[in-house]
Fold this protein.
Amino acid sequence: MIRTPLRLYRPESVAEATALLDEHGDNAAVLGGGTLLVPALGRGERSVTALIDLGALGLDGITRENDELVVGARATYSRVAESRLCRQHAPLLAEVATRITGGAQLRNQATYGGSACYANPSSDAPAVLVALQARLVAAGTNGSRVIDASAFFTGAFATALAPGELVTHIHVPTADAPYAYEKVKHCEGSWPIVTCTATTTAAGRRAITLGGVCTTPVEVDDADGGDLTDRIVAALQEPWSDALADGSYRAAVAPALARRVLDRLDLGATR
Amino acid sequence: MNSTDAPVKPAPPANPPDPARARRKGGELMLTGRGGYLDDVVMPGMLHAAILRSPHARADILGTDLDAARAMPGVRLALDGAQLAEHLPRIAHLFDPAAFGAHTASFRALAVDRVIHEGEPVAVVVADTLAAAEAARDAIQVRYASSQPVTDMRAALKPASPLVFEDWGTNALGDFPFQEGDPDAAFAGAPHVVEGEIRIQRYNTAPLETRGYVASWGDDGRLTFYASTQNPHPLRTLLATMLGISESDIRVIATRVGGGFGHKFPGFPEEGLLAVVSRIVDAPVKWLETREDCMLVGGREYHHTFAAAYDDTGRILALRDRVLGDVGALGAGGGWGMVYVAGMTLPGPYKILDYDIRAVPVVTNKPPWNGAIGYGKESATLLLERIVELIAADLGIDSVNVRMVNFIPKDEFPYWVGAKRLDSGDYAGALRQLVELGDLEQRRRTRAERRARNELPGLGLAFELCPEGGDFPGSLLRGYDTATIRVDPAGAVTVLSGVTNPGTGNDTGIAQVVAGELGVELGQVTVRQGDTDVSPYGFGNFSSRGMNVGGGSALLAARVIRERLARAAAVLLEIDAADLEFVAGRIRPRGAGEGIAFGEVANKVYGMSIAIPGIDEPQLEATRTWGPENMLHVPDERGRTSGYPTFPYSAHLAEVELDRATGVVTIHDYTCVHDCGVVINPTFVEGQLQGSIAMGIGGALWEELPYDRDGRLGARTFKQYLTARAPDLPRVRLGHQVTPSPYTLLGTKGAGESGVSGAVAAIANAVNDALSPLGAIVHEMPLTPPRLLAAINEASR
């Protein structure tokens, strides 16, 4: 049960939302899809007196601006998956959205924005956003700033957001270069244990982004030749451990997963 | 056996139940949100309880401070253990180990002075809303002095181990031997011996609906107790004992249960607690088990140390096993007995004459077990089926043949083995049918092709014997039950059953049997279960008894009614009662004529009895009690007894693929051939199998309740406790065999637990088969990807 009396705010402008966030500080939580927040409040893991609902801010859309897609922070996985813009211009984003665990009920509520802010190392969104070279727009009372995905994730459950900031949009460069994505998990209900995205850079090189292995996504470029496994192992500074899998397992799986994903990329298959 | 009225001779039902798959009674209620589960119970002025639980596995309680909690908004009551003890000194055992020659302890609803497991209730708050109760609970201060808990059952048996119960002098609850023949001699003379250990994790059943209760006292001093429970009458008896009042002053109403699986046997502290606090605040009080609370209740954690002697044909000459079960801090519920059953189930379907089994329940500072479907049989089955595969691999023999060589032959039933008189069976026939239905030979060819491509495919066979219907004299878990049938003046039929159903549908099956006997439409029969003011004393549901004894007792009662109506109809039609049949809602001369409507005869009995000569039994109500003949508690000339009367069985075949680089297991195919004797409603039986197999798969591969050295649980939500979900499971291919029980009225054997044991073993065998080209064996469950990858890498060194 949510056991602290709380007030739900439903601001109608980003300025109003950031002002509320400023005012309530640690006593407020931002409510996006709620799929992580609401159960945590019910279990008493988090306790707030104010909820700032993003639902009336018009942040649930997807548009195209020049050579970028602009995905609202409140756009659900289902919306991304069904969006023609996403499927055409950022197919990796759309594909991963269809494969988020939890069924249609969850995908109709949960969001890339929310998952990025949660920054669970053992999840899909962080590594995918880094692989896509996405940029997150963070709004605060002093205005907005843009944060590269590779700088956004700073540690396990930690982001570069400053107090009083909330994510409003995710900018994703359009990309029609081949990619491949795979993840390893124990079974359907499990968080992703290791994820791997392989993309082709503008220079024609293959870039690998590993998620789930360390506290933040790990990028490995195959530019310099040498053994891929060695380069991956060298890049894994501190493997992440949680209840589902030890860091040693994740580190052991990562190179094999990367090889598999690269093979798929070379074959030109996206699935 | 039946009641003290004139005995009724058993015979097959005159109108066999409609073999068509009758739809579940009340299904439309469940689908439209009108199911009536515990949390749907809302009473005027109802309050809510929240329980503070110990965060420590082993600690002294130095002091409690409830002042802040009592001052919070909406709070009506807050009590700690010392305060509650004035009202409720002890809770009552459902299944006291002392009655079985083992140690025992007494337990409180709220801890006083010390706690012995994480999650043990320490204080309770009652408030206007659940949120207010939980907020106030969070404000309670308790000071503890914690100490190192006992968390490992093998360490617990070492002399230096701290004791969970000081006065026992040991952490072994008991030691249950099952022995026959001369295993020492058999081992000494055997050409081959295989030895090993198997470690099975603690896991539980995770019912979709957790427990809950609502307690309410009337102005007349009577307690009404709603409960999501499997056993309303035994619960009523326990409450009467704890509260010091008569059972006639208590009404227990078991609401519709969304999954029982043994988790909802009574014996929990919250039951007596809620009754008492409700009386203190003089208002109805509701308590709901959170998912986290539910994860604290465990089961199934065993350690086998085994040896099997065998000859060159694969025949098992002797079996030794010492099986330890970590039952946690015992508690007052029905869980510890599973260790007894784990030993008792051996040697399963195999004809082994020399064996030495010891089943040892061990207490630790983990939360107590309650029942968990399988009830120990899944532990015994895993052991036997791994032994069979080890033998087959060692000798280079097909493990199908190893099983065939060892099966009890079908013409040797009834077959005594230790504590069981097995009723009937064609084990070889079921296995043959499985081999064909599952296309084993083709799958073996495919496996060879995949292995040639350096993949790791695996095929796993398993055979499961599932003793059911357990009868435990000296307890309130008995193998017989009672039904009352009433027919009203319009001819509507009501069955009041002492059995309950946890969502498995035996109410529909019982209605089918009664409707068949009386020749009326299924819709004309209502089955009432779960209300102790309505139903005769019964034992609820457990051990797959519902259809067997619920249907059997209802059938006997229906026959009494039928015979009375037949005599009345015979008078009205002026023919012989023996010439009547009950078909399509009419009572009519066999083969000719319209006869009279069932309802019209009932009406005449009520309205014209005594006035019409010959219609002189003005009562259309009958109560009958029945249990299988195969419950044998008086030792025979060889001192043998058998507490389980029915023995369904099943054969399983799993096809998996093991990913060499990740250790992830994918299940490609699954076949099961099942024999539960006569089947009343195939839809329900198949549903049970699908569900049980899903549970076994989850238990073999992913589900675990891990405890750290401090006795703290590491899995509290479904993101850590990984049950199987639909995309993980193949569509299970099901086949049936029917060898009726000669000891039950309906020929049924029970189908409530079959599948779990076979699935755990089939998956374990399939995974070990996948590892076999690498020379690796894994006997530690669950078979998670990290564990399997470690085994793969170890073997590759």
Summary: The first strand of chain A starts at residue 7 and ends at 9. The mean pLDDT of chain A is 94. The CA atoms of residues 124 and 192 of chain A lie 7 Å apart. Chain A touches chain B through 26 residues (CB under 8 Å).
